[in-house]
Amino acid sequence: MRQEKQEPETNLKGTFASVLIVGVIIVVMWVAVYLLYVAR
């Protein structure tokens, strides 16, 4: 059995960045909907 060298830290950094970006987009959407609701 041969173990291939991987770089899990790089993958985790990319995953963390992606999750943060998606989270920020969701929060911005919720804030926009809330502000539209309050403005009516």
TrEMBL record:
Keywords assigned: Membrane, Transmembrane, Transmembrane helix
Record organism: Planococcus faecalis
Lineage of the organism: Bacteria, Bacillati, Bacillota, Bacilli, Bacillales
Transmembrane parts of this sequence: 16-37
Organism domain of life: Bacteria
The name this protein goes by in its record: Cytochrome C oxidase subunit II
